[in-house]
Amino acid sequence: MGKVIAFSNQKGGSGKSTLSANIAVLWSNSGYKVAVIDADPQKSLSYWLTERKKYYGEDDIGIDFYNFDIRNLSDEIKKIKRKYDYIIIDSPPAITFETIQIVKVSNGIFVPVQPSPLDLMATLPFLQIARDERKKPLIILNRVMPRARLTDAMVLRLRYSGAKVARSRISSKIIFAETFAVGRGVIDINVTSDASREIINVGNEILRNL
Question: pLDDT tens-digit profile of 171-191?
Answer without folding.
Answer: 999 999 999 999 999 999 999
